[in-house]
Design goal:
Elements: H1 17-30, H2 47-59, H3 63-76, E1 86-88, E2 91-94, E3 97-98, H4 99-103, H5 105-116, H6 119-137, E4 147-150, E5 162-166, H7 168-188, H8 193-208, H9 220-228, H10 234-248, E6 249-250, E7 254-256, E8 263-265, H11 266-278, H12 282-291, E9 305-307, E10 312-313, H13 320-334
Antiparallel strand pairs: 1-2, 3-4, 4-5, 6-7, 7-8, 8-9, 9-10
Helix pairs in contact: 1-2, 1-13, 2-3, 2-5, 2-13, 5-6, 5-7, 6-7, 7-8, 7-9, 9-10, 9-11, 11-12, 11-13, 12-13
Length: about 375
Amino acid sequence: MPEVGPDTPAVPGILSAFDVAATAASIAAMQEPDGAVPWTTGEHTDVWNHVEGAMAMLVGGEVEAAERAYEWCLATQREDGSWPMKIVAGSVEDASSETNMCAYLAVGIWHHWLIRREVKFVRRFWPAICKALDYVVSMQLPFGGIAWSQEAQADGTPGGKVNAEALLAGSSSIYQALRAGVALADLLDDPQPDWELAGGRLGHALRHHRDLFLDKAQFSMDWYYPILGGAVRGEAGMEMIAERWDTFVEDGLGIRCVSENPWVTGAETCELVMALDALGDRDRALQLFADMQHLRDEGGRYWTGYVFPDKVNWPPEHTTYTAAAVILAADALAHGTAGSDIMRGTSLAAHFEEIGLECGCASADALPGRS
């Protein structure tokens, strides 16, 4: 039986604290012996979804499993600060790397600090975070976005061709990670001005140059991720939500993953829930969170998605990343643990100044009155 702690979140009328703990236990049940959290049993592990799983397990009371997951990050990081894109049962299947995946450890460790307040734990992971974020920042493009990936070399080692285009969703996630990284740097009194400079340029690109990112407008992630990552908020965020609400939202079911496919997915729905919560749109956030619960299965597990014309769950598997998104959304809505604001971002470092821009826009450091 899963244990319910005093801070285990509950969303009245939708999920109880026991429900949340059961879902955390379902993630831990799919964890591999070395600590890896694969997409589902027998599937591959990537470090972004793995860290998201660790965060969710911590919220749901699976502390030992969460910390084993973080230890896996140390064991699998490469010397250049990156992680392989796909690892299956301990073996590298795809040795290339994605920058947004590599950045996300900073978010996970900041989240752990908020909940556990263990400086020793943070210090253990700080060198890995520094290597990871230094690697990510080295991939920044002149307009401010972050190159989305780097291929492996012919011998399978890292450091091959850089794919010098930026993904809007991935760069938005990196923006959150840089703020988490700077918050950790402040905690440890180890300033990282290069991350702050990169964060300012990246935030500017996410707010003003979204047309320079790869066009993935058919994916719902590109719609809401600039809000979820924290670069766009307030009235601009509400306008962004209004622009494509009717394209992606299916009343009573959740949101589409891809605009042209009649398929709603739980993880994307819960991420939109957290984006709406960050904008203060609590009513629609709660409604969408309730709507997606048709994906819940026995033992607190969640189906990935639902093809609504066929009335069938597809793919026919329960995924850890869907379960993790549910838990983090529940925590955000419930204001449950001390890490519940991780997507709202109020505990993160302040938004970065837009200085040192290379896109042709006026930098803040060039404005009248600044020296």
